[in-house]
Amino acid sequence: MRPRPATYLLPISLALFASCGSAPTQDGPALPGLEQLQADVQGGKNPIVSSTGTAAIDDRTQRDLNNRPQFSERSQDAANIGRLIVDCDRHLRSWADAMAQVRDQKNQELVQYTTQSLGVLVAKNRNLLESQAVSGAARNRGIACAALGFSGDNRVTPLLLNGVSSGEPEVVAKSLLGLGVLADPFTSMAPIHAAVVSANTTSEIQSNAAFAILQIAIKTGVDSDGTMASALLSLIHSPDPSVRSQAVLSLGLIHANIALPQLTDLLAGDMAPDVRTAAAYGLGQIGSTASTQPLVNALRDPSELTAGAARAALVRIHGRDLGPDPDSWRPLMTQ
């Protein structure tokens, strides 16, 4: 599930450049497989109907239930698992919908509410969700991993990384979402990198990987072994501008000097204003004087937000503000 269209506000660029124009358009994190889960429940595929609701379970579990008394302990356990997964699905949908809207005060409150609601659900069912994250059906594992990210407890990080390493695209994508929400600064980048560069990567995996890395980069601001930068340099070639912009912001946050040529090219030539804005921000964070000329050129960008980001980047690099006119900055280009 990928909310479109959306204005998921990138936190860093908004704080710096909100006064320069409208907020950049940005997709929220993807939730692959959740639409199918909901469709299965609504369509009556393998449901267990009880007095408290309808739950979706996998085919094998359904066959087991058909061969046992209707109210057996195993049947009730399966029904409870199914209801929990559907509840997590609903909460994740609400959160994703909130994240996909323009980030104003009302929306901020909605995001906070949906985040807290899912956190309460996870806290009440932590053991069962952890069990499903390890040994449930693929769909259950993915949703459990996504939900566990809302626990706020970095002890679940190994479970989510295990999901990222599973090789099952649905589980990988949702586990990446969970890692992004959790934003544990000590998250190992190796499994995320492997998922991004894998031949089996999907658009959902790339979208959630970009989201996860950005959230972690905000927390850490470092890339100790270059693995994060390597994953990000792969993501900047995504056809999805939301993936590119988040990857570019992350490269700036970790001060990836190795990415200077790529960010310069994106600032000058990317068709998406969000990506150009992110590139200007990234160049400012890296802080190389070699970026002066492309940033000065970007002061004439048709996007006011990009032009404002370029000016802010120049101020960061040179320690003074010479205004919005490119000509006032040109003497610095010869220094």
Task: Give a quick summary of the entry.
This protein is mostly helical and 335 residues long. It has helices at 11-17, 34-42, 59-66, 73-99, 105-124, 126-135, 138-148, 157-164, 169-182, 190-197, 203-220, 227-235, 241-253, 260-269, 273-286, 292-298, 304-318, 326-329, and strands at 47-50, 53-56.
Which descriptors would you attach to this protein?
single chain; 335 residues; mainly alpha; two-stranded antiparallel sheet; 63% helix; 2% strand; disordered N terminus
Describe what this molecule looks like in 3D.
This protein has 335 residues and is an all-alpha fold. Helices cover 63% and strands 2% of the residues. It contains 18 helices and 2 strands. It has helices at residues 11-17, 34-42, 59-66, 73-99, 105-124, 126-135, 138-148, 157-164, 169-182, 190-197, 203-220, 227-235, 241-253, 260-269, 273-286, 292-298, 304-318, 326-329, and strands at 47-50, 53-56. The protein has a two-stranded antiparallel sheet with strand order 1-2. Strand 1 (47-50) and strand 2 (53-56) form a beta hairpin. Helix 11 packs parallel to helix 13 (241-253) and helix 16 packs antiparallel against helix 17. The radius of gyration is 22 Å and the shape is elongated. The model is unreliable at 1-27 and 30-62 (pLDDT under 50).
